[in-house]
Each structure stands twice: as structure tokens, then as C-alpha cells.
Amino acid sequence: MENRQRLQKKDGPKAPDPTVPQTKAKPRLLLMGQRRSGKSSISSVVFHKLPPSETLFLESTARIQKDSLNSFMEFQVWDFPGQIDIFDNPNFTFDMDAIFGEIGALIWVIDAQDDYLEAVARLNTTILHLQRGYPHINIEVFIHKVDGLSDDYRLDIQRDVTIRIQDELSDQGLENAPVNFHLTSIYNHSIFEAFSKVIQKLIPRLGQLEAMLTNLCRTCRFEKAYLFDVNTKIYIATDSTPEDMASYEICSDYVDVIIDFTEVYGSWPRSQQWRDRLEGEPWSQPLDDQVACEWAESGMVLAEARRPIMLREVDRFLALVAIMKEGSYEKMPQINMNVDVVVKGLTEFFEITKNKDVVAAPGPGEVASPPLAQG
Amino acid sequence: MSDFETAGASTAAVPVAGVAGDSVAHAQLKKVKKQKVLLMGKSGSGKSSMRSIIFSNYLARDTRRLGATIDIDLSHVKFLGNLTLNLWDCGGQEAFMENYLSQQRAHVFSNVGVLIYVFDIESRDVERDLATYVNIISALVQYSREAKVFVLIHKMDLIQPTTREETFERRAAVVRRKTAEAVGIMHKQKPEQLQPPPPVDIDLQLFATSIWDQSLYKAWASIIHDLVPNLSIIETQLTSLGIAIDADEILLFERTSFLVVSKWTSREGERNPYGDRFERMSNILKSWKHTCSKYTGTPRNAEQFSDFEYKMGATFSMFATKFTTNTYILVCMPPGEARFNSAKLNVAAARPWFKFLDGPVVPPAGQGQMFVGTPTTGYGGEAGVGLSEG
């Protein structure tokens, strides 16, 4: 929050700030939509961990808010004030290249509980503008605030919005524009899932990541595995089994549990006496050598069917979370070894894709071909 | 196993036995407590909502479905094996309130162990709320002088975060003053009754609460804390367990509500800057339980997980496990595989020590299976948790 406010002050009235370094490898997410549609709430909840109930107190955004998101990839999130129409502004001409020049996604937020005709009309003009000048930008429509609406009603709205946009676009001679629709709410996991989908499209070599996870699932008999960005709970890859919201929810909540435990018990420094005592007799070993794994690892057995869930940190930003088949808790040591191998592969993968030149990434099979023990 | 049981019994008896001898100790251990708990406050202040969250595993947002409580909603909450809460959720509409204070006065206010009074911070008519509160306190002092009073200033989430503390303090001061006034009035009315003037200075505790965060757990854990029978025994045993397994912190949770029943913290653990961690743990585990129930499709109140472990590199390790029938235990400890594995084994070995938590296991005559033979001397605990070096 403080961060946001500081940014707001710093940006000054003449947005966008031309001094922002325009590095190539920073995909950009642009949040746009009518005022009060929930853009700032979304970015606060997803990127700043604001409890959804506290978004009530957020003030209206007056200037473009720029956040940069440091994770496995660096993202920029730009939150646009709803009252400004960047394509038709009498007072100020926006530098379109500065806004849309980077590869990224435009997230258009529509308030489903409000009259959305105007929002749809503005979205249409925006899409037409973008398709002409910047066709590489993915357009993602968040039909937002759908909590409290019945399932049927949600789908009705989605259908209606989709048809209105497609009709308008095809009237203008634009078929098959890259527009995707998501039903979202900040009060449940849907907003994180939607962001996951948006971000996955921006990850180079996603297929490779998915192949590694699929392989791991097959070898270790996992039901489902997710690779999470821990800070935002966005999943950046999953295995190839069909997606289901329920397993995403439980895995994402598990990440939350671990984050909370880590904060309470792991974020403050222990005293030297404590360390000395633990490293002294009878262990006589530095603490680092007393542990098996330097990263966080965790497991939980659900009472029903004794199905375990496991989590393993990959690096500072990423964690692997998987739901295992029932009764496989006893095989944990073997599974851990396999997970270790995959984690090593993942680390290599991100080392390589971090190089800005995507072409230099290895072809299939070069990264993720560690031998896995059959579990 | 029987070794452990004997050891457990003698340990259990030690703290009390020192004062009054074995028979008394047993009698105390056996006693099944029933506590009358009154939950009162104006209509719509959130009494039933918090009750549902704490004892029936509702999610905060599910409480919107609850309707107004009509008259008194009586429920018996089994909390640990040997404590039953007689929870009187008193509908807060004015007609009911008047009724409690007049016709039902003796019925409602006698034998009360705890009064929980809920104020809605957003209420428009504060004066009137306070007037009702004073009447309730007067009635309570009249019939149950020993009762403890917990005042919850509720719905704090509706106040801007920056002004919450100030708003709470201001309201708390008013409530304290009013409580003193109410007690004062009762003093003045008493003299002609030829009784010694009541020594009352009401035991009053105030909490700022909201169903949307952990503050609710803090308040309820304090309420519960004073009611738990054999608390000193639990604490002594947790201490010896903690020292034996070299833990930094041990928390004992009740199974359904996940309120912290008892806790032990090492000297190093005391340095933890998170003072609110106990209620936070309750909140985290409870919402995790909810996630599990949603995923597995099992009932909300069913047991959702049995074992949990988390090793965070060379920083710390922790595990939580089903402990006795009615409790979960959470142990936070220094890192190290060997230390971790032996602690897990030792916690499992210590289970019989805490069997009395599941009471009433002991038949009245003290011949239950738990007390095999007469506990003699010595502190049997050490044997029970001798560190098994992994």
C-alpha cells in the first residue's frame, strides 16, 4: 500500500513516465476499464496481498500506477485510471509506443454487476486501435465482481459480452482478434486463476515446463502438480491433466499456510546462543549440515483417503505443489529424490530463459531429461 | 505402554498432589465441568455469527445466511472431553432483552460462569446500548457474583485501520466506566439485606474483534482459557515435553474450534516478535481445514488432516499432528533432521500423558484404566520422553 502511494506521488501528472527503463524482457500487464470497475482492487489483492475486505477503503486512482513485480520473470503492472480515455484525450496525447510497445497483455476489467454497455463500447474502440498498431498485445477481458451472481447469470453475461465484442469487431472487418474472457472476483481464487492464464501466455517455452511437470506426475503418481509464484499465488505451469479449480484452490491455500507459518516462525533472527547450543554436543555439526534440504519442504496428509499434499520450494520465488495419490505418503523419501531432480531441472530452465535472447534456449529434451526413479 | 500410563498419571498428579494429597488430585482431575456461558448484546451485533465461526466451522462470509436469533438458543458445546459449555445465545431484540431482565431474570442470570457481551462498534444508538448493558450487568451481579465478563467490541473491520485502536480504546473506557457504575448501583441497593457488602469488582476483559480476522480467536481463546479444567497440569506436562524434545514452541489446539488450549514457549521462542501468533495459528489452521473440507467434500466439522510437517531449510522445522482425541498439537523447533524425527517419535510417546484431556475417562472411584496402581513418588516424565537419538 505504502508502495503504491509513493508511486502515485512520484509519477506526477505527466504519465507515462518516459524515464522508466525500457528493457526488453519485462512483459507488461496493463489494467484498464471503466472507473470503479475494480482495477486497483485487483492489483492490490493480487500483487500486494491486500485482504479483499479492505479494498473498500481504496481511493480512486488518479494517475497511472506502475508496479514492477519481481519474480521468476520481471513484470510490470500498470493500473490506468478509469476516467481517462487514452485514445481520445483532449488535454494530453499519450505516447502509444511507450505504453504498448512492450510485449504484454491488456487486461480490460468489466464490472458485471453494473451496466456494462459503455465499457464494452470503449473496449471495442481500444481493441480496434490496438489491432491496428500493436497486434502482439494479448487482450484479456475480466468480467469482474461475479461473486454473488448465480452461475447461470454469470454465463449469460459472459455470452452477451462475447457476442457484443465479436459482432462489433467483425463489422469492422476484424475476425479472430486475440480476445480472451475470464469470470473473476477478488473474493475467491478466480482472480488468481485468471492472472495465471494471462501470465502463462507470456512465458517463453511454457510447453517445456509443462512437459517436466507431466513427467514428474507420471513418475511419482501425482494427481496434479502446480508450479506457483509464491508471492502472488499465480501458477505459472501445471501438468497436462485437465485443469480443475478445486485442486488449484487447495494447492494455492497450502502455499498460503506455508507463507504464514514462515512469516511467524521463520522471519526473525535466532540468537547466537541458540545456534551454539544446537551446533554443539551431541550434534557437533553446523546447522546447515544437519538439514537435508536447504529450501522449504513440507507435506500434509489429508484425513480423507489419506491423500498427501506436498510442497517444495524451487527458488526464492517459485514453489512446486502437488497433490499425491492416496497412500503414497510412505514413499515420501523416494518422491523427494525425484522432486529434487525436477527442481534442479527447473532451476536450469529459468537460468536459461532469463537470458533475454529466447532463441538461445535449448530445444526440447535438453533441459528436462534427468532420469527419474520409478515411484 | 502401561509404563507410560503410570508415568502420565504420576506426572499429572504431581502439581496438585504437592498441596492436597493424591485423593484430592484425582477428584480434581476427574471433575467434569459444565459451564454456563451467556452470549448477549443488541440484535444484529454478531453474536450468532461468531458462535458459528468458532464452534461450527462457518466461514466468515457464510454467516450472512444466519437469521435473527429468537429468544434463547441453547447449545451444549463439548470442548475437550471434560468441559461442556452451556452456551446461551440470547437473541438481542429489545422485547427479549426486557424479558430476560424481568420474568426470566433468575433463570437467565443465575449460575453464570461467563458473560460475553457484544457491542456493535457501528451502532447508531450508543447511549441506549450502554443502558441495556448496565441493566444486564446489574442483573448478573445480583445472581452470579463470581461470573467473569468479557466485552467484545465487534465489527472492528468497519473502522478504518488507522483509527481502529483509538476507537476501541475510547469505547473501552466508556464500557469500563459503565460497568463500575452498574456495580456501584448494586452496592447501594444491597445494605438492607443484611449481607456483607459484596466484594465484587467485576472481572472484566475487553477485546476488539472482527469475524474477518484473527482477533475473534484471541478473544475466544482468552474466554476458553479460564474455563479449561486441569490447566495447570496441562501446562506442566507441556513444559516437560517441550524441554525434552528441545522445542521452541508447543501449541495445543482443541480439535473443532482450533482455539489454543495451552501453550509453551522456550526462552528463545519468547523472542518471537509476533505477539499475535497464537490466534493467527488458529485462524490459519481453521481456514485450511475449511479448504480441505471443500476439496474432499467431507462435512465441515469432520477431521480434515492428520499430519503436517514443514522444514524450512536451516531456519526452523515444525509439525502438527492429531494428538489426543480432542486435540491437535503443533510443535515448532530448531532445524535438523535427527532432531525432527526424534521429536516426532517423542510426541507420539507422550500421548498417554495427555489422555485425561479426553476425559471423562476416569470412573468416579479412581479405578480407571489410566491410574494403574497408585502413583507413588518421583517424576516419571523423564522416562517417557527420553530422547531417542535418530
TrEMBL record, chain A:
One of its GO terms (biological process) is cellular response to starvation. Signal peptide: none annotated. It catalyses: GTP + H2O = GDP + phosphate + H(+). GO terms for molecular function: GTP binding; GTPase activity. InterPro entries: Gtr1_RagA (IPR006762), P-loop_NTPase (IPR027417), RagC/D (IPR039400). Keywords: GTP-binding, Hydrolase, Membrane, Nucleotide-binding. Its main location: membrane. GTPase involved in activation of the TORC1 signaling pathway, which promotes growth and represses autophagy in nutrient-rich conditions. Component of the GSE complex. This is GTP-binding protein. Residues 1-14 have a biased composition (Basic and acidic residues). GO terms for cellular component: endomembrane system; fungal-type vacuole membrane; Gtr1-Gtr2 GTPase complex; nucleus. It is found in: Endomembrane system. The keyword Membrane applies. The keyword Membrane applies. Pfam families: Gtr1_RagA. Belongs to the GTR/RAG GTP-binding protein family.
TrEMBL record, chain B:
This is GTP-binding protein. It is found in: Cytoplasm. GO terms for biological process: cellular response to starvation; negative regulation of autophagy; positive regulation of TORC1 signaling. One of its GO terms (molecular function) is GTP binding. GTPase involved in activation of the TORC1 signaling pathway, which promotes growth and represses autophagy in nutrient-rich conditions. It comes from the Eukaryota. Keywords: Cytoplasm, GTP-binding, Nucleotide-binding. Gene3D superfamilies: 3.30.450.190, P-loop containing nucleotide triphosphate hydrolases. Component of the GSE complex. The keyword Cytoplasm applies.
